[in-house]
Each structure stands twice: as C-alpha cells, then as structure tokens.
Write a structure and sequence with these properties.
Blueprint: H1 3-27, H2 33-101, H3 105-128, H4 138-143, H5 145-148, H6 164-169, H7 171-180, H8 195-207, E1 211-220, E2 225-236, E3 242-243, H9 245-254, H10 258-279, E4 284-288, H11 291-294, H12 297-309, E5 317-322, H13 323-327, H14 331-342, E6 346-350, H15 359-364, E7 367-373, H16 381-392, E8 397-401, H17 406-413, E9 419-421, E10 429-430
Parallel strand pairs: 2-4, 4-5, 5-6, 6-7, 7-8, 8-9
Antiparallel strand pairs: 1-2, 1-9, 1-10, 2-3
Helix pairs in contact: 1-2, 2-3, 3-10, 3-12, 8-9, 12-14
Length: 433
C-alpha cells in the first residue's frame, strides 16, 4: 500500500478519536470526560485493527500476484530450456551423423571439433539459463532500456578492431596499420554507471551473447616479440558500447554471475585456440578464472573431460589465478587444477603482492608463470636479487605487468626478466574467433 494511503487511514481514525474526546461530552449528556477518553481510545484501537487488516489483505494480494508472475516466468524459462536442449541434441546428432559419413580426415577433424564444442556449450546451458539470473525477464528489459542508450557517457580511449593472427604474423605491418586505421571502427567505453545499470548490462549481455573477448600481447624481452596473449572479457551493450572488468567484476561476483562470464570467456578462448592450431601458429593464451569458477565443481569436471578429449588444446591454454585466491583454494579445488595441468595446461599466478613466497612449492604445484608489477623490484634490492636467482633454477617464467613507458621497460630489462606486458607493447583489442 502506498505511503499516502497509510497516512490517509491514520488521519481518519486519529481524527475520529480526537473528535470523540473533545466533543463527546457536549453532544452526549451522560458521557463524562473519562468516558469520552475511553470512547476515543476505543475508536483509535478499532481504526488501528482495521488499518492492519486492510494492509495485510493488500500485501497478500501483492504477494499472490508476484508468485503468479514467478510461476509464469518459470514455466516460460522451462520451455525455453527444453527447446534449447532439443536443438543442441539435434545439432550433436547431426554432427555425429556427418562425422560417420565423412571420408576426408580434415573434414572429420573439423566435425569432431565442432561436436566437442557443442557438448561443452551444452554444459554451460544450466548456468546461462539459471532462473535466478533474470535473463528472460521482459520487464527488466524495458525498465533498463534507457540507461544503456544514454548519450552523456565518457569516451575513455579508442580501440581498433583487428585479427590478432594478422598482428602475430606481421608486427611491423600491424604497427603501421595502427596509425592509418585510427579513424576506423571505434568502441566507446561506458563509465560513471550506477550499480543497478551495470547489473542490468551484465544480465542482458549474458542473455544476448554480448560477451566479447579482448586480447593483450605478452612479449619476450628484450626483443619485444609477441609470445602469448592474455584474454579479457568485455561486456557490450545493445548499441555497441562496452564496460570493462573494473566496473562489473565485483558486481557480477555479488550477483552470482561471474562464473557464467568466466565460462563464456573460456569457451571463446577454445574457439581461438582452434583457429591458431589450424593455422600452425605457436601462441598460447592466459585465461583468468575467478575462485567462484574454480569452485564450480560440475563445470570444472566437464571442462577437464573436454580437454582430455581435445588434448591438442592443452599446450596453448594457461589458466591464470590470483595469488590470494590460489592460496585460499581447498584441497578438492587444487586437485581439479592438478587434473587440468596433468593434461598439458599450464598454471599462472597474477596479482602478486610480495616476493616472499615458497617458489619450490609453487613449482611442485605446477605453477609455470608468475605475474607481478615492476614496483615490487624496487622495495628491497637484496630480496629482489635472491628472488630472481631462486627463480632461474626453477621451471617458472616471470612476467612483469603494466609496463607503460620506455623508462619502466629499462628498469625491467635491468633485472633480466623474460617477458613483459603492458600498454607499451599493445592495448587489449577485440579478437574475432
């Protein structure tokens, strides 16, 4: 019930009670002052009880209406999930039939690849169609249609679209092309969004398949030759603008949506790896997974089975976990990572906060990359020297992140670091699978 209605009812029975107290003895001769006060109290209490009954009845009606809406949405969602599962099953059967009739080995491999990706996508469906995500809520779509179409947004920087394989094959032509294509297709970055607006964009991006993968190069030093790429997710709005992880990761995590985003990023990375395998290129990809995804045992089991059946993917896939989250993983979650590493994937730790770590234990735990920022080197020269000396005797490579200037690069090169990453070598740019 609206607040004005409550105030209206309160005013009525309080006014009646006051009238009974003030004017009751004047119009009812036998009614004394004490009796008038009792009469006013009785009217007040009767009004309160009546107000409570009316309010409760209205709340019950609202609750009933909401439950009916939820049941309706649940039925619609169940029908859509059933339809999607039937479609995926039909696709899988078609691929299998085509695979059995194929005579060319190359075509057979392509069909098997597509079939395995369909099966992997099938495991994603329960997560992407969770009724609690509100992915099919038409009311929410209309409610937040306006925020995504705001024109008063801040354009932070321009990003040029390209095929990363072309960049990898010919870095010089890529640099020349960056200068000439600065006026081509650009992507504006949204900022200053409220939490409600960001959450709406996250849900709609999942619903409408608008999770894009951006790639940033990791180069070998001092040659600056591109050796790896790190995968980042970006959410795209209906009008082509994007929001970056710093805006939505914490919100998506609280809403329970970060696992679905990680799953889709991992799936898109698999598609890219398929492409580089067919082209014969030698490049691997860092894919950052949150602790929530690592704790999703069902999906992780499915993904381990997928890698086991597509073993050629494993050498190109580097699973990246934040140091704090890695140290807080349970034994069962570490075992899942161990199973994935046993098939040929590699493990990287990023967001390092200190050089004080048991490097031998990390190496024994199949950690093969450490990512840290250059400022850690300047804290204690003796500690830095010992850290680098210990690292050279272990199968762990060091990547220094956020190198943005030539001066910063010089400081890194003085430490004989193997790999570097940062805007100096290239910004994250959209990848086309």
């Amino acid at each position: 019930m609206p607040l004005l209605h409550h105030l209206f009812f309160i005013t009525i029975y309080c006014g009646l009670a006051l009238i009974a107290v003030l004017f009751g003895p004047s119009y009812i001769p036998d009614l004394q002052t004490g009796g008038a006060m009792l009469l006013g109290l009785w009217i007040f209490l009767a009004g309160v009880v009546l107000h409570e009954i009316i309010t409760r009845r209205g709340n019950d009606e609202d609750t009933t209406a909401k439950l009916e809406t939820i049941h309706h949405n649940q039925a619609v969602l169940r029908d859509r999930i059933s339809w999607t599962r039937r479609e995926i099953k039909g696709m899988a059967e078609a691929f299998e039939a085509a695979g059995q009739s194929s005579k060319l080995s190359e075509e057979q491999n392509i069909i098997n690849d597509a079939l395995s990706e369909v099966n992997l996508l099938k495991t994603l469906m329960p997560r992407l169609t969770d009724p609690f995500l509100g992915l099919f809520d038409d009311e929410e779509r209309s409610q937040f249609e306006a925020p995504e179409k705001k024109e008063a947004v801040q354009q932070k920087r321009q990003i040029v679209k390209s095929d990363f394989l072309d960049d990898f094959r010919n870095e010089r032509s890529m640099r020349a092309r960056q200068k000439t294509e600065a006026t081509k297709e650009e992507v504006s970055v949204l900022s200053d969004l409220s939490e409600t607006e960001v959450l709406s964009i996250v849900r709609r991006s999942l619903r409408d398949d608008r999770i894009d993968m951006f790639l940033q190069p990791v180069v070998a030093l001092p040659q600056r030759k591109r050796k790896f790429y790190e995968c980042f997710s970006r959410l795209r709005t209906s009008n082509g603008q994007i929001i970056e992880p710093g805006q939505y990761v914490s919100i998506a995590t609280r809403a329970g949506l970060i696992t679905a985003i990680d799953n889709m990023l991992l799936f898109r990375c698999v598609q890219i790896i398929r492409k580089i395998i067919r082209s014969g290129e030698d490049v691997s990809f860092f894919v950052n997974l949150s602790s929530h995804t690592l704790k999703d045992q069902d999906f992780f089991d499915d993904f381990v089975d997928f890698v086991r059946g597509n073993i050629e993917i494993a050498p190109h896939l580097i699973i990246e976990v934040a140091q704090d989250e890695f140290l807080n993983l349970k034994a069962s979650e570490l075992l899942s990572l161990e199973r994935l590493m046993a098939h040929g994937c590699r493990l990287s730790l990023d967001r390092m906060r200190t050089l004080d770590m048991d490097l031998k234990a990390l190496a024994a735990g199949r950690v093969r990359f450490l990512k840290l920022e250059g400022w850690l080197f300047s804290e204690n020269s003796n500690k830095t020297k010992k850290f680098l000396n210990d690292l050279r005797s272990l199968p762990i490579e060091l990547v220094v992140e956020k190198i943005e200037t030539e001066d910063a690069l010089v400081q890194v090169l003085d430490q004989d670091v193997a790999y570097g990453q940062g805007y100096l070598f290239g910004e994250p740019r959209p990848a086309k699978p």
